[in-house]
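Q: I have 315 residues here and want to know how they pack in 3D. Can you give me a structure?
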Amino acid sequence: MRTRPLAELSSRELRPLLQEEAELWRTELLWDFTEVSSAVAGGLDRGTLGGLVLQDAWRPIAYCYSMPESGRTIVGSLFASAEFRGRGLEEDLLEAVLTQALDQPENDRVECQTLFSTAQQSETRFARSGFRSRGRHYLLRSLEEPIPVPRALSRLRPLRRDEIPSAAQLIFESHLGSLDAALNLTYASPDHCRHFVETVVLRSGCGRFDPAASFVIDGRGGPEGVIVASRLSRTNGHICQVSVRPPAQGQGLGEALLLASLQAFRRQGLAVASLSVTVGNEIAYRIYERLGFRLRKAFAAHAWVRPPARIELPA
């Protein structure tokens, strides 16, 4: 076996591995991964992806990519073909990609979320490289189960595309001082939040945006809560983001937004709803469990900043 820079491959050479990966996540996560696979293939052909691939004789059997995004480098999918899993190959490949990313002087921040990873023991490799990490869970809920009618129904209305700036500001304010903001640059500023919302809504950054399941709750001074939803597949509706402005938290608005989206997913004939949550976010986690969401896959969020800067994680 030999390791090669991912940039040396064409999308045609990697296509069989990408197809196998898409089938795994479709089965395991109910996530249509073809758009992500197409984006990886496009990045290969444009030469914009970093990362490495492991080859057995003539064929790629594992890969891990990285890419610059919004002032950081994101380490993306870590995938090995089924017959090569469980041998530590993915972990070794990950460590090499992390070393590659951290050695580039222009990289002051590197992040990775391991939802799309077949590695069984990657945590020690992140710790060895100086990353701060916290567990996250990917949750699913059957839409065949009863869905209560949301409270504050009269204050709910659809999220409009022209409200991206105000939605981003609300999301930013709701994450101030949070664990998620410490680990994910997405929540570090209003501009980063706006880029995130624009990516989800305008560029299908997390499945395809679902306007019928995305809502705002209005208050006396303007929007107090927002939920952004998408479709990950023909059967799976996804909660990309639910946020409530801090002064309005604790009033059941987040739960009302979630219930409205679940009802909208059901009206559209979807079978399940999904979302991801940081395990340390206990208040949100309890709400999701009460509403019927259950663990599908455990993963983690990892972040590194170049010393002397430090990532301070709230207790």
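Q: Anything worth noting?
A: The chain has a mean pLDDT of 94. DSSP finds nine helices and 13 strands in the chain.
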